[in-house]
Each structure stands twice: as C-alpha cells, then as structure tokens.
C-alpha cells in the first residue's frame, strides 16, 4: 500500500498535486505535437486570454484566470521573451501596461485553437472512461471550498476534539499557584503588577471566595492553562476578573469556554449584571468580551487599576 492509499483524504491536496504534475508533464507532449516553437503548458491561460481579448492589463488577466498578479507578470515576461506577446503602455493610463499578441503569437493562435478542439475531444473521451466525472467533482470541490476554506474546516475539527479534552474545574487551594502564575504572566507582558492584583492572587480565598465570589480554571493535557474569577460586587452584580489563558494554549477556544462558564455561574448565583474592566490594548481580550455579549459602559465606578481604560457590562436576563 502506497502513501496515498494509506492516508486517503488526509493527503487530498498532495494527491491532486501529483495528478496535476502527471497531466502537466503529459501536456508537454501534447504541445510538442502542434508547436514548432517552445510552449509551456503554464503559459496557456495567459496566452489564451490575451489572444481572445487583446489589450488587457496584467491585473485584468489575473482576475479572469484566477491567478496572482505576480504569477501572471512572470508568464507575461516569459511570453515576451519568446516574442509571443508585446507589452506596451496603455493609451488611457500610462501607468498600466496592456498585453497584445505579436506577429509570432498571432501566427501561433490558429494552431493553438485547433489544439484546444482536439484536446477537448480527447479529454471528453478520457472522462467517459471514468465512473466519476472529475470535472464536475472539481467544480463541486471549488464551490465547497469557497463556502468554507480548508483551514477553517480543519480548525473546526481540531476545536471540537480539543473541546473534549478541556476540563473546567472549580477552584481548590492547590490551584492558587496556577491562578497567580497565569495572571502574572499576562499582566507583566503588557503592564505592571499592582497591589490590587497581588491581594486577589495571593489570597484568593479571602478576597474572592469568602466574599461570595467564584474561581474557575481550565485544565488541558494535565496542565492548568486558564483561569477566571467572579467577584461579588453586590446582590445583583458580579465582576468578571482575572481572566487568563496560557500562551501555550491560546487559540483553542479556552477563553470563550471559561467566559461562558462564568456567565452561566453568575446567572445561577442570581446575578442580573456582569461587569469587567480591561484595556483596549488587549485586542484579543476585548474581541472575546464582545463575542460573549459584553458592551462598553461608562456607568462603572473608578477602577482601582491604573491599566484600566475600558469598562464593559453584560445584562443577564432570563
């Protein structure tokens, strides 16, 4: 069993690349049947577009054939080097070059058109030999990837798998070191640790739990990698604070899981409002809070933290 048979869909891209290489190599033999001048298969989309619609700009050609501007520019240079196209400044816009066929290119065009007709007929026969129409399958695949790219599809699978490996835990005294470590890590990266931080991080039982608050932690692969706290402000309001995710575990959706769990916990505790303080410098955190439903507010009390420049709230309703 070869690698492609063994791994199947896991190496779909490599399998398609191998098929593309096979067909490209065999296409060189096809061009040799028709052209006396050297002609590379990769030139075809550009040459055909220029022949069919002379006077286009490089950007126009790139858009029509679905290739990058840089790739089309390189092919145009190769075609110009072989005196098949000419590159001239446009009359309407001197800053942009237009591409047209040279006399040599124009002589080649009828032969290429005949080649296209012959190849079309040969490929139709080739497709007829297969149980599944590859052309239709490619169109379906292109449409599916335009709806959701491969990276997003793999991320969804990974996130679903990781979600099953993440455990949310209630605070226990043995986790105090992790609770402090995770928060000190991000605070020192962007700001400075303040006295108010150390009170809560060094003495979470006294400053958070005994006052009616809660602390949640996230465990992944045997390590505590995330934490957040609910600080009771009054009978109706809790503050979401001390949210932290280890850099080694970021991008796994742990912050959202913790935030959602904290919201559910606050609602179960009878809270009608959640409040938080942050800094707009922390763009990923601010985006997370918006995703959780928080909105900016100016109704909060002055913050004890010098780093705070934004206050947000989430109204909890049944």
TrEMBL record:
Pfam families: Acetyltransf_1 (PF00583), MarR_2 (PF12802). Residues 177-317 form the N-acetyltransferase domain. Keywords: DNA-binding, Transcription, Transcription regulation, Transferase. It comes from the Bacteria. The keyword DNA-binding applies. InterPro entries: Acyl_CoA_acyltransferase, GNAT_dom, HTH_MarR-typ, NAT_camello-type, Tscrpt_reg_MarR-type_CS, WH-like_DNA-bd_sf, WH_DNA-bd_sf. Residues 9-150 form the HTH marR-type domain. PANTHER family: GNAT FAMILY N-ACETYLTRANSFERASE, LD18367P. This is MarR family transcriptional regulator. The lineage of its organism: Bacteria, Pseudomonadati, Bacteroidota, Cytophagia, Cytophagales.
């Amino acid at each position: 069993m070869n690698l492609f048979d063994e791994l199947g869909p896991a190496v779909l891209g490599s399998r398609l690349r191998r098929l593309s290489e096979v067909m490209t190599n065999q296409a060189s033999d096809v061009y040799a049947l028709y052209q006396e001048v050297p002609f590379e298969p990769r030139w075809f989309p550009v040459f055909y577009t220029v022949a069919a619609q002379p006077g286009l700009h490089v950007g126009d050609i790139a858009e029509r054939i679905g290739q990058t501007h840089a790739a089309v520019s390189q092919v145009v240079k190769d075609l110009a080097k072989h005196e098949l196209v000419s590159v001239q400044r446009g009359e309407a816009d001197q800053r942009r070059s237009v591409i047209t066929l040279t006399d040599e290119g124009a002589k080649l065009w009828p032969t290429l058109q005949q080649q296209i007709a012959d190849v079309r007929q040969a490929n139709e026969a080739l497709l007829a030999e297969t149980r599944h129409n590859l052309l239709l399958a490619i169109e379906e695949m292109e449409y599916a990837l335009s709806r959701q790219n491969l990276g997003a599809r793999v991320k969804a699978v990974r996130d679903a798998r990781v979600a099953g490996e993440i455990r949310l835990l209630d605070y226990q005294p043995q986790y105090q070191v992790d609770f402090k470590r995770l928060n000190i890590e991000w605070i020192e990266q962007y700001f400075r640790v303040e006295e108010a931080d150390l009170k809560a991080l060094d003495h979470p039982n006294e400053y958070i739990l005994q006052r009616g608050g809660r602390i949640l932690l996230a465990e992944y692969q045997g390590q505590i990698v995330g934490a957040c706290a609910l600080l009771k402000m009054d009978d109706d309001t809790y503050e979401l604070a001390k949210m932290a995710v280890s850099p080694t575990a970021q991008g796994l959706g742990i912050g959202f899981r913790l935030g959602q769990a904290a919201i559910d916990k606050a609602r179960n505790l009878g809270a009608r409002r959640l409040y938080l303080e942050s800094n707009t410098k922390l763009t990923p955190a601010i985006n997370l809070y918006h995703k959780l439903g928080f909105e900016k507010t100016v109704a909060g009390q002055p913050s004890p933290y010098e780093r705070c420049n934004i206050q947000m709230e989430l109204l909890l309703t049944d």
